[in-house]
Design brief:
Pathway: Purine metabolism; IMP biosynthesis via salvage pathway; IMP from hypoxanthine: step 1/1. Helices cover about 25% and strands about 35% of the residues. It has three helices and ten strands; from the N terminus they run E-E-H-E-H-E-E-E-H-E-E-E-E.
């Protein structure tokens, strides 16, 4: 059990399970991109650990970049995520793989797809370490899924609770 701010979290997914899932995702990508040089784009802040470990296991040539999503409403989370910060690369005609730490409702994935469609990418693929099928409300295909999880609040391995927990090597779920 760990305590972050005012909440308690119990062990949920070990670092070994995470490593196994990322290894499998990298193998799939090796097969899919054997004849091209994709651009992997991590969505900050949560994806930094996933993308780092994924790149250590991916065997092909690739480029890596990071972006951050921002809302038009300042500090209020409105669900109206429209701005992409940090993308200064020309992606026209390129294969792009968006790397997320977690996909739940799919709102961010939907916005990213719209943004990258405007950039005229050749192929857009979505990869996520954690996927909550119960919470997912969109029709967009998630191409690479590391681990399917129930709709529970989790921390660790890049995921945080009010800024804490991102550095944990294992994943914890909110205690009941």
């Amino acid at each position: 059990m760990i305590h972050l701010h005012d909440k308690s979290f119990e062990p949920f997914i070990s670092s070994e399970e995470i490593d196994f899932a990322i290894t499998n995702m990298a193998k799939q990508m090796d097969d899919d991109f054997f004849d091209e040089v994709p651009v992997f784009i991590g969505v900050l802040n949560g994806s930094f650990m996933v993308l780092s470990d994924l790149m250590k296991k991916y065997r092909g040539m690739c480029e890596v970049n990071f972006v951050r999503m921002a809302s038009y409403e300042g500090t209020q989370s409105t669900g109206d995520v429209k701005q992409l910060i940090g993308l200064d690369q020309d992606l026209e005609g390129r294969t792009v793989v968006i790397v997320e730490d977690i996909v739940d409702t799919g709102n961010t994935v939907e916005e990213l797809k719209a943004i990258f469609k405007e950039k005229k990418v050749k192929h857009l693929k979505i990869a996520t370490l954690f996927f909550k099928p119960e919470a997912y409300k969109k029709e967009i295909k998630i191409d690479y899924v590391g681990i399917r999880i129930p709709n529970k609040f989790i921390v660790g391995y890049g995921l945080d609770y009010d800024g804490l927990g991102r550095n944990l090597p294992d994943v914890y779920q909110l205690a009941q």
